[in-house]
Amino acid sequence: MPDDAEPGTVRPGGRTARVREAVLRAAEDALTEQGFTRLDLADIARRAGVGKTTVYRRWGTVTGLVADLLLDMAEQSAPRTETGSLLGDLKANARLVQRTLTDPRQGALFKALIAAATCDAKTATALHRFYDIRVREWAPCVQQAVGRGEVPEGTDAHEVVRAVSAPLYYQLLISGGRLDEAAADRAAEAALAAARAGAYAGDGDGGEPA
């Protein structure tokens, strides 16, 4: 089949899937190496070993490709861990974020994507969607904790999950502090203490998905 075949015209798992995988990994490489502002679809096609027409036809723009990359990253992220306690679940979440952000490739990739989101509205929207998917994945652990009586009724599950990862991103991007498992555990413990005190209960969504 020629390189400019319309995506979706071959069976799932066939050439279309292989092309998407190759192009997304090439986009990751380019973002990690040179940042968002120097991304070029022709260069990414060359790196992926596919025809330029395929890349332009399927993704259209750099921001379209970045949006698909973020969707793929959300889909590939590790699933929620259930330990039987909210502290255990939040620590599992925090350690997953910590491992991701300290990974040489993934950490650099997230820095590039966050930087791009500050100056490109479509990338910002795609990044927000990525985090919304991940927060929704982990929110049930807080909803289950409400049922067990670990945190008050009406606790906003999404805000609790966000509170876990926020200090880790702060250390990655702002403070330059040590981003290790101890930092991850402290973030989880602080979020739990705030939730138990009712900091995330009240006028929020009560932990139910929006």
General description of the model:
This protein is mainly α and about 210 residues long. It has two domains: about 1-60, Arc Repressor Mutant, subunit A, CATH 1.10.10; about 75-195, Tetracycline Repressor, domain 2. It is built from nine helices and no strands. It has helices at about 15-35, 40-50, 50-60, 60-75, 85-100, 105-115, 120-150, 155-175, 180-195. Helix 5 (about 85-100) runs parallel beside helix 8 (about 155-175). The longest helix has 28 residues, at about 120-150. The termini are far apart. Residues about 1-10 and about 205-210 have low confidence and may be disordered.
List the helices and strands and how they pair.
Layout (H helix, E strand, L loop, with lengths): L14 H20 L6 H8 L3 H8 L2 H15 L9 H17 L1 H14 L3 H28 L8 H19 L5 H16 L14
